Amino acid sequence: MLRRINLNKMKHIVISASLLLSTSVIAQDKQQIETTNDSVKQLKEVVISANQIIGSKFEAANKTGSASYISKEDLQKFNFTDINRVLRSVTGVNVYEEDGFGLRPNISLRGTNPERSAKITLMEDNVLIAPAPYSAPAAYYVPSVARMSAVEILKGSSQIQYGPFTTGGTINFVSAPIPTKVSGSVIADYGSFNTSRKLATVGASNETVGAVIQYMNLSTDGFKELPNGQNTGFNKNDFLGKFMVQSKKGSKFYNSLQFKFQYADEDADETYLGLTEADFRANPNRRYAGSEVDNITTKNNHFALTHTFKTSDYFSITTTAYRNAFSRNWYKLQDVRVGSTNLGLDAILVDPIANQVAYDYLTGATDSPNSALRVRANNRAYMSQGIQTKFDFHFLTGEVFHDLELGIRYHKDSEDRFQWNDGYAMQNGTMVLTSSGVPGTQDNRIANAEALALHAIYKLKYNGLTLTPGIRMESIDLYNLNYGTADPTRTGANLTERDNHAKVWLPGVGANYKINNYLSFYGGIHKGFAPPTNTPGTDAERSTNFELGTRFAHGKLSGEVVGYFNNYSNLLGSDLAASGGSGTLDQFNAGEAHVKGIELQLNYQVLNEGGKFRLPISFGYTLTDTEFRNDFGSTSSWGTITKGDEIPYISKHQFNGSVTLEHNKFEVNAAVRFNGEFRTEAGRGSIPNEFSVPNNTIVDLNAKYKYNKYLSLTGGVNNLFDTTYLVSRVPSGLRPGMPFSASVGIMAQF
To answer: What is d(CA 456, CA 437) in angstroms, rounded to the nearest whole number?
Structure first.
């Protein structure tokens, strides 16, 4: 019988814990204020708001684990709207593209499985943002980086604070803050493929109230080519509103209450169908007629209510209640029927000669019988909600700084699959609907999860030494209700149930020793974890993770180098359609694996300070070495695994570099990125062509002219040399990266 956590009981636990802890800590806090008045300045470190996990570049450089902070200025430098391009500037991040615009990124941190970013913790404003992070973690929704004020990446032991995925790391998107005064901005640009962006933000606050409202629209006709000339792009809307009330300055106790609402929708003519090898070589931007009706529509609603309570500079309680509702229907070609046989898209594209009839139907070369092309409505609805509380207490004992953080989160999420097939005929190169399916007759099930997470992390600072021991607990109940495809009305006549449970304790410790302002060393060890699915008997993914690094500065040169080693005792793979699987979402045990790597970041200021011009340059290198440590048979696209094989979809070598010419009136930025070859099936040595995604080198340019302090003119080029490059062989067939594109725009602010 599945154990379930009662929400009301959980609420009582959270409230009781808050009251108990705050009562005891306030008493200590009062005494602390009386005894450490002379040391207040030492306690007032960089303040991190409730919606951030790092807070600044300064904090990132002083973490006991690897951390990166991409500021608003960094994001505006290249004006990217594609999260893949933003993250390629961060060492230790491995991504493979899919659509060319970054709508559905596949992100890996330190060698985790990148498929649908399912093995990293994704957050917005310190709140879980994946549609169903426990029951269905494959993230079909990722916040638009174009509207963000910062992006934070944690990869070290301090990520104990932010589960459930604690092996690779955490990405937190920081949305527009409420400004301290009346202010606003407008960003508008237009470019190749009729691509446009419109982003408007306005906000204000006074001593007690504040608000910010933001609207963004992204749209494009797309760069891929259908035979009928139909658009292959998307239209995306994004709205954000934040409203805040707070205590006046000088109040005995500080209280603030912030309400956040965010809405996003997307209508994209996107497909799973790629190309054959020959067709990709002939025209990589081609799309087959069989993908003509492929389309994905999404809607996302996010609500969050955050209360912050402070008794002084030493003690605070932050509580956030949140709810996400995400729905999507990806209407896309499923297979092709020839005679009495249904042929999968992969099989057709791998060998179009042997499957000539199906290939001709697919491409529109010949007409097909009625319903020969089956299009599936991959209709799904997601819900995610919870409440989380964090207590923070810091104090001094002599010259020793102490900071204790305790956190508790209760979370529920679900995925509801209610899918059907429609039948189409290919007639004169056009898809024609010939039969309509009944909703629920292809997939009809609900996955649910309930999770309780606790964490405690203690920071001790003495002179140049910082220690951060901590521990995290995750207790998860997972269950699945399958009504069956013969019961679309969900009477329960054919209902089958299954459940699974996981409970883990995840200790960790990090350290940073600052020798002087120019040199420090850091390292840590922590247990890694990824939840299992509701497949009975499937154990959680577990790992032990080590890192050791140094941060340094000498004259005009600064940088960081870190080595890491992740030892998986139970690596899990998932059967995802996005990676070429059947799409059941069932997990399989991939056993033991090692992932080790080196991350190097160098920054150099070429010109002397104080001149009219500045010329900063940066260079980053990531080595990711992966190895399975046992043999096993995989039912997914990974293939059969032999000890010593490399994990698929991970580039071993990556480089990135940038150079910026800065002046008070203008700046010109150039960025280059090299993504090394990776394999789509496990193996070792040279990669066979049919399993290889070759390396590529892409150069981007961006320029800004500051007309005055209110108005700037911008221009940019992506893929300057119009390099043709393959980004993936999955879900079905080869797909290209973005070709040459250019844009011009304005940035106005007041």
So the answer is: 51
CA separation for the pair 257, 259 (Å, rounded): 7
- What's the CA dihedral at 733, 738, 740, 744 to 10 degrees? 150
Q: How confident is the model at residue 49 (pLDDT cuts 50, 70, 90)?
A: low
Q: Could you count the other beta carbons within 10 Å of the beta carbon of residue 277? A: 16
Q: Is residue 650 a contact partner of residue 579, using CB atoms and an 8 Å limit?
A: no
Contact 402, 463 (CB under 8 A): no
* CB atoms near residue 567 (< 10 Å): 16
Q: 590: pLDDT confidence band, cut at 50, 70 and 90?
A: low
> Distance between CA atoms of 569 and 578, rounded to whole angstroms?
25
Q: Say if residues 317 and 405 touch (Cβ distance below 8 Å).
A: no
* CA-based torsion, 168, 510, 163, 300: positive or negative: negative
Name, in order, each residue with C-beta under 8 angstroms of 12's C-beta and a sequence gap of 6 or more: none
Q: Are strands 195-205 and 209-220 parallel, antiparallel or unpaired?
A: antiparallel
User: How high is the pLDDT of residue 55?
Assistant: 84
Query: Token pair 């997601």 is at which residue?
Result: 382
Asked, for residue 278, whether it belongs to a domain, the answer is yes
Pick from 552, 557, 672, 565: nearest CA to 620: 672
Specify the CATH number for the domain of residue 614.
2.40.170.20
State the total domains in the chain: 1
Among the listed residues 369, 294, 365, the one whose alpha carbon sits nearest the alpha carbon of residue 338? 369
Cα gap 66→61, rounded to integer Å: 8
Spatial CB neighbours of 342, under 8 Å, sequence gap ≥ 6: 335, 336, 374
Residue 1: inside a domain, yes or no? no
The CB-side HSE value for 697 (13 A sphere, CA atoms) comes to 4
> 419 lies in which domain range?
7-749
Residues contacting residue 694 through CB under 8 Å, at least 6 positions apart: 677, 725, 726
Per the DSSP assignment, residues forming a β-bridge with 509 are 469, 525
**Residues 717, 157: contact at Cβ < 8 Å?**
no
Q: Is residue 374 part of a domain?
A: yes
Phi, psi of 736 (to 5 degrees): -95, 165
Dist. CA 154–CA 457, nearest whole Å: 15
Rounded alpha-carbon distances, angstroms, from residue 183 to 178, 213, 256, 262, 657: 10, 11, 21, 20, 34
Q: Which residue has the tokens 């007309």?
A: 707
Strands 234-246 and 541-554: unpaired
Q: Can you read off the two tokens belonging to residue 550?
A: 């140094």
Q: Tokens at residue 393, please?
A: 């207490």
Beta strands in 428-442 (DSSP E): 430-435
Rounded distance, CA 422 to CA 371, Å?
8
Say whether pLDDT at 259 is over 80: yes
The backbone region for 477, taken as left when phi is positive above 0, alpha when psi lies in -120 to 50, beta otherwise, is beta
| Dihedral of alpha carbons 93, 592, 547, 587, sign | positive
Among 226, 360, 349, which Cα is nearest to 287's?
226
Q: Which residues contact 32 (CB under 8 A, 6 or more apart)?
A: 314, 395, 396
At residue 584, does pLDDT exceed 60? Answer: no
User: Per DSSP, which regions of 606-637 are E strands?
Assistant: 616-628, 632-633
Residue 369 pLDDT > 90, yes or no?
yes
Q: For residue 607, is it within any domain? A: yes
Question: Residue 279: which residues within 8 A CB-CB, separation 6 or more?
Answer: 286
665-692 pLDDT per residue, tens: 999 999 999 999 999 999 999 999 999 9
Query: Mean pLDDT for the chain?
Result: 91
Give the closest residue to 279 by CA, choosing from 364, 162, 387, 169: 364
Distances in Å between the Cα of 461 and the Cα atoms of 36, 39, 160 are: 16, 14, 19
Q: Which two tokens stand for residue 540?
A: 């959680």
